[in-house]
Structures are given as structure tokens and as C-alpha cells.
Design goal:
Order of helices and strands: HEEHHHHHHHHHHHHHHHH
GO molecular function, one term: transmembrane transporter activity
Strand content: under 5%
Pfam family, one: MFS_1
CATH architecture: Up-down Bundle
Number of domains: 1
Keywords: Membrane, Transmembrane, Transmembrane helix
Strand order of the largest sheet: 1-2
Protein name: MFS transporter
Largest sheet: 2 strands, antiparallel
Number of helices: 17
Radius of gyration: 24 Å
Subcellular location: Cell membrane
């Protein structure tokens, strides 16, 4: 599965990267018997456009980042048992992580415009490695908040989906929906790879080796990013994929923080922004905040082994890859707001059935839920990003960063409240039902989004 995304990216194209023509002076052998016209020799270099290789590098980088997001769900029970911290306390650290993941994203998009993609991502990976590595020596809850909440939250926020949006906007003018779907699916591919490994480490050797593994994975990706990733097509003398004209690399945009805040205030004056932010907040609440954080401990409450529950989440990752790539393909062909409404409605229905499906063993109906939920997991990203592009143009990457911030705030609130609900009621049932109702509301909100007004050309 690791190679699925790059293969889709590299073989979904059939256009050459460049065609070069050379004109040579005629020689006696070249000259025809009559006329004396010059002969032009054409040499064609048929190669895959460089944009697809950049997208493949981005895909692999996001896969590495998925390791950092896979671990919190596996830490709740081990930290509770070792340090006797309440699940609400541990959930608070996860909440800080998720919130910073979202809030940092729009600023990271602006920083990429200022300093370049490679520098921002390399620094982010180093911060993640530092935060994850330091957790090995923690002894107090505030240290968990500092290391996993603050440091890892800032690092992962700089590699959030705004990273994928920036790469897509710079390198592609065609097939953006497909590329967005593949890059979004990279996170699920990473979950597929790392969840079984990390759960095995936690169960057999404790949580510390798992934290060290995450730190080493972050460091391993740094040279890969630095050597292979490129900031802009102009850096290698190319047009963006599908563009008709060459685009010069824009100068660094100074005042990244000021621009980010200005874009927020500008977009916040529109109803579309608030509808996108609201639906995406519910998306985060029902995925990262609830299922990714609390599914493993909830299944363990019903007698299911941790490794089995983590493997089910990994299966979610398998079908998330399929669902997200398919969603990108659909987004290129159908109205994005209608796709969003369908995705949220189906997700809400599935969550309402989950409390009666949980049990000590894996059975067919549970597998059906996992497959169904996996197909819908982040299928919402391509249509949401498409709506940002339609309504906000050149600022769409930063606007999407703010929309993603709402996604993570929703995730953070439910990550915390889910732990509190478990401590209070002794089960997660009330949280599953509440999330299902929220998804129904998100479906209605998506349908309210209007199509952007098109400018009328002067007569």
C-alpha cells in the first residue's frame, strides 16, 4: 500500500515533460535534389512531468507524518495505568495537539510562501522528533502537554493539509481534485503502515519504544524532503502541469503572520467561510477527535485486544485511500457541495450504529462499519478544498488552512470531551450518538453553500 499513491500519481498522466527541437544547418547530404530546403531534426524527450514526482515526494512525506498522528490513541490506556492520570487529562494533551495542528496550518501556508516549502517542512519534522523523543523522560502531566501537545502539535500543524494544498496550487492547474485526493490519502496510508507496528510495540515493549520510533521516523524524512522536494515549477524551468504559459516564481511574501490574519478577516466576512469551517469542524470531531482518538480504548472497554482494535483502524486507512482518491475524481466531475452533503449524511448514519457493533471480537458487521467508515473518512477534503479554490482564489491555501483549523478545533473538543464522557458515564455511547447528530447537521450546512458568483466580462 505504500506505493499506491505514487503509482496513481505517476501513471495517471500521459503528457511529456518537455519537447525540445533543434535546427541544424543543412549539409550536402541533407539537401534534397531539388529545392534546397533545410531539414529540421526534432528530438523528443518524453518524460513524466516533474509535478508528479513532487507530488510523490509530498505523498511519502505525509505518510511519515501519519506516524505522529497514529500514536495518541495508543497512549491513553498505558499512560493511565503507569501514571494514574485521568483519561480527561490525557485527552487534554491530545486536544492541545489537535488544536495546534489546525491553528498552525494557515500560518505554515504563509511561511511556505515566505521561506519555501522545503525549509518549513524540514524544521517541522525536526520539532516533531524533539517533542516525541522528550516524552520518554516525562514524569508529570504538564510535560505531556508540553512535548506531545505543544511541540508535536506545532510540528504536525506545519505539515497539515495546507502543505498538500500549497503543493497542488503551485504545481498543478489540471487534475487538482485527483492530486488532492491522493495526497489526502497519504495520511491514511501512513496510518495503515504505522498503527499495527506502534500497537505491537506498545503491547509488547511499552509506550516508550513507540515514542522513539515516531521520533526516528520524523528525522528519517528530513533529508528526503531537503534533497528531492522543490518549491516551485520555475525552480526547474517548467510550467505547472496543465498550464498553457510559463509562470515565473513569485517573490517571497513578507509579513506572513499579517497576511494570514488579513486573509482570515477578509474571508470571515462571507457566509461560505463559516459554512465550510462549521462542516469541517464536525468532520474533525467525528474522525480525529472521536474515532482516531477513542476507538481503540472504546473497543478495549468491550474486551477487544488493543492490537485487534488498532488493526481495525489500520483497515480504515486502507479504504480511506480508496475513498479519498475516488472523492478527488468525483470532485473533478460533480458539485462539491452535494458530495459533502452525501459524505456527512452517510457518516452520521454509520456512527449511530457503532455502539451496538462493539464487542470482544471482530465480526462481519463490525468489518462492514470499518470499510464503510474508511471510505468516508477524509473523503470530505477534496470537495472542501475545491470550494475554497472556487470562492477564495489565490488565497485558497491560507483559507483552507483556517478551515482546517476549525477541523482540528472540533477534533480537540471531542478528544477532550470523549475522555470526560468515559470518566463520567463509564462508556462512550453518548459521544457516538452526539457525533452522528452533528454529521446530520453538517450535511444540511453543506447544501446551503452557494455556487460562487462569476464575474461578467465587460461588453
Amino acid at each position: 500500500m505504500l506505493s499506491l499513491g505514487p503509482l496513481v500519481l505517476l501513471f495517471a498522466v500521459g503528457e511529456p515533460e518537455r519537447v525540445t527541437q533543434t535546427t541544424e544547418a543543412p549539409t550536402p547530404e541533407d539537401a534534397p535534389a531539388a529545392g534546397g530546403a533545410r531539414t529540421r531534426r526534432t528530438r523528443r524527450t518524453a518524460r513524466v512531468h516533474r509535478a508528479w514526482f513532487v507530488a510523490a515526494v509530498t505523498f511519502v512525506t505525509i505518510i511519515g507524518a501519519a506516524a505522529f498522528r497514529s500514536l495518541p490513541a495508543l497512549l491513553i490506556d498505558p499512560l493511565h495505568q503507569e501514571f494514574h492520570w485521568s483519561r480527561g487529562t490525557i485527552g487534554a494533551a491530545v486536544s492541545v495537539n489537535l488544536a495546534l495542528y489546525g491553528v498552525t496550518s494557515p500560518f505554515a501556508a504563509a511561511l511556505m510562501d515566505r521561506f519555501g516549502i522545503r525549509k518549513v517542512v524540514a524544521v517541522a519534522l525536526s520539532v516533531i522528533a524533539l517533542g516525541s523523543g522528550l516524552t520518554v523522560w516525562m514524569t508529570a502531566a504538564w510535560q505531556l502537554l508540553l512535548c506531545w501537545g505543544l511541540l508535536v502539535g506545532l510540528g504536525t500543524g506545519s505539515m497539515a493539509l495546507a502543505f498538500a494544498a500549497t503543493v497542488t496550487n503551485r504545481w498543478f492547474t489540471e487534475r487538482r481534485g485527483l492530486v488532492t485526493g491522493v495526497l489526502t490519502a497519504a495520511s491514511a496510508s501512513g496510518q495503515l503502515i504505522f498503527l499495527p507496528v506502534l500497537s505491537w510495540l506498545v503491547e509488547r515493549h511499552g509506550w516508550r519504544p513507540a515514542a522513539v520510533t515516531v521520533a526516528l521516523a520524523a528525522l528519517a524524512v528530513v533529508p528526503f524532503v531537503w534533497l528531492l522536494l522543490r518549491d516551485h515549477p520555475a525552480d526547474v524551468g517548467l510550467k505547472p502541469y496543465g498550464a498553457q504559459e510559463f509562470a515565473a516564481k513569485p517573490p517571497p511574501v513578507r509579513g506572513a503572520a499579517r497576511r494570514t490574519v488579513a486573509v482570515l478577516f477578509s474571508s470571515a466576512r462571507t457566509g461560505t467561510f463559516w459554512l465550510l469551517a462549521g462542516t469541517f469542524a464536525i468532520c474533525g470531531a467525528s474522525t480525529n477527535g472521536l474515532v482516531q482518538t477513542h476507538f481503540v480504548p472504546a473497543a478495549h472497554d468491550h474486551g477487544m485486544p488493543i492490537t485487534a482494535a488498532a488493526s481495525l483502524l489500520a483497515v480504515v486507512g486502507v479504504f480511506d485511500v480508496v475513498g479519498t482518491i475516488a472523492s478527488g475524481w468525483f470532485t473533478d466531475r460533480f458539485q462539491a457541495r452535494r458530495l459533502l452533503a452525501a459524505y456527512y449524511a452517510l457518516r452520521g448514519i454509520s456512527l449511530l450504529f457503532l455502539p451496538v457493533l462493539l464487542g470482544p471480537s471482530v465480526h462481519p458487521t463490525m468489518l462492514f462499519f470499518i470499510v464503510f467508515y474508511g471510505l468516508d473518512w477524509v473523503a470530505t477534503v477534496p470537495p472542501t478544498l475545491s470550494l475554497c479554490r472556487e470562492h477564495f482564489g489565490q488565497d485558497s491555501a491560507i483559507v483552507f488552512g483556517w478551515v482546517l483549523a476549525s477541523h482540528q478545533v472540533g477534533a480537540a473538543v471531542v478528544a477532550y470531551l470523549g475522555g470526560v464522557a468515559r470518566d463520567t458515564f463509564g462508556s462512550y455511547d453518548v459521544v457516538w450518538y452526539a457525533a452522528g447528530a452533528l454529521c446530520a447537521a453538517a450535511a444540511l450546512m453543506a447544501l446551503v453553500i452557494r455556487r460562487p458568483a462569476r464575474a461578467v466580462a465587460p461588453a
